[in-house]
Amino acid sequence: MANQRKFLIYKRLSIDYTITYRILFDEVIAMNADFSRTLALLRQEKGISQRKAAKELGISQALLSHYENGIREPGLAFVKKACDYYHVSADYLLGRTLDRDGGMIDAESLYDSSDEKGTLRGSIAATLQKKMLVNTAGVLFELLGKTNDRTLITSAGSYLGGAFYQLYRALHRASGGKEGYFGLDATAYQSGAVDAQMRADYIAYVSSLAQLSEKDGAFASMEDEALASLYPGLMQSVTQVLHSTEEKTNSLLGRK
Q1: How far apart are CA 164 and CA 169, in angstroms?
Q2: pLDDT tens for each residue of 7-42
Q3: Helices (H), ranges, 47-101
Q4: 50-57 and 61-68 are packed helices; what angle lies between their axes, rounded to 10 degrees?
Q5: Are 228 and 237 in contact (CB under 8 A)?
């Protein structure tokens, strides 16, 4: 009886260890994939060849290629050197934060107003627009999340963030707010710097989609019935946003 009890305890400990190891292993694999993609993306953003980057980082081109393709794992010395070279934090490079400076903002700590009921103060129109866009953004990022592609997701967020930035800054200025509130100087902003960044984000987004397609990446079904089943009620907002945008664009182009 005692031996049987010991065996059961040993078996349970073995199962717990295996599950814990598997979870940690999956997290490490995901982090390695994020590191490889981010390392390659940063070099592409810098507009330099793999050969030049390798030379300036003090390693061979072959080794950098292995790092960027996830074939080999770098040591801490290289991670530090890459962070200094690309002016990002180690947390960003390793995929632990979306903030290049290393600010740790996780999904659980962010306030989420998407489940709030009622109307915004003073405007039914504002409430309607908010709900449609919140619902549409929710569906978009749910679908993007299924790809598990960090570059794709962050470039989409950055693009939408740029649109919000411009709308908010224009409102801030019209309301008499001080330009000093913003970190981007007025000259750069008025010359279209944010537009340029949004364009770069869109290029990164489309490029990531193309790479996923080539590798037969994990895309969710985009069939109407499948989406309506996955997101009942929310797809009404998505359809409305798409239809409204197309209607206004066709009108701008003189089309019926």
Answers
A1: 8
A2: 444 444 444 444 444 443 344 444 466 788 888 888
A3: 50-57, 61-68, 76-86, 90-93
A4: 110
A5: no
